[in-house]
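pinging the channel bc i need a second pair of eyes. not urgent but kinda urgent?? the chain im working w is below, pasted from the shared doc
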Amino acid sequence: MPIPHGIYPVIHTPLHLDQSVDIVNFEACLRHYLTTDITGVTILGSGGELPYFSDKEQLELLISAHLTIGAHKKIIVGLQAYSATQAIDKINHYKPYADAILLLVNSYYPVAFEDYYQSIRTIAAASDTPIIFYYFPQITKQFLTVSQLEVILLLPNIIGIKDSSLHLLTAKKLIQKCPSTLYFSGLSLMLEQLPNAAGAICPLAAIYPQQSQHYWLAIKQNNDTQSRVYHQYLKAALPIINALNMPAKWQWNLLTLLSRCPIPLLKKVTSSHAQVKAALHIIGMPISPTVRHPLRSISESEIEKIRVLIAQNSQDSEAEYIKQ
């Protein structure tokens, strides 16, 4: 299997103050994940930084990741394209360095599903690298039915899906209808409700990689006590990747309600790049909260909220460990 089951953190890219790529600290961040039990990493995908880098920068980051950790961890690389030709060209450049492509097909104009499907079919047929279909309808505006997703996932060389729609009914049906397809949730916290999922490609795992991996393993081993502990730990960090001013419990309750609705209701997303980067800096990673314009930057008061949240989460985790 080219891509094993497990947790694949979304790697955020360090930038200098002038917003140029900081390759040295990018490699240092990658080496941090070598000290954990995660299965692999996702670069240039998920987290949404991808569209803000040039083609040259994207390739340089992938080569850097390959040279730094490619011998030890699997590398999934994000690829956004507006045409099949564009995607195939990039895949050919990425082939020596990536274990799988996380493919996001976007469109400037609205397109019919048949045209959308044909572009993915063309890309998959031309690629020597396995493809994970990135289903992120809040970005692509392609809200697909289970039947439409199933048709895509049955294409040769489409080995999996990263589902960021966070709609449980769709997820469960896909896992049932496509058992040989690797189903990755876009949020590790959803895995408890999806025991047959292959894992997660998740921004929370970037901040808490070891805890995310332990959470997934606890679910696989039916260890309810451990999964509950790690679920609480990860849930407490939800404000970092979403809304800083709303308590984690409220966010989780709202997400749970929306994800269980008969039809998908999560229609919009906002950038949390700066928040995640600030969290990574606070826990000791060589990365600053700098993002590329026009992505929203973060204020000092927001950074302080993240600092307090991380400290409290650490204290609560230690107390839970002692209690056990």
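so Strands lie at 6-9, 40-43, 74-81, 100-105, 131-135, 158-163, 182-185, 199-202. and The first helix runs from residue 23 to 34. — does that match what u expected or am i reading it wrong
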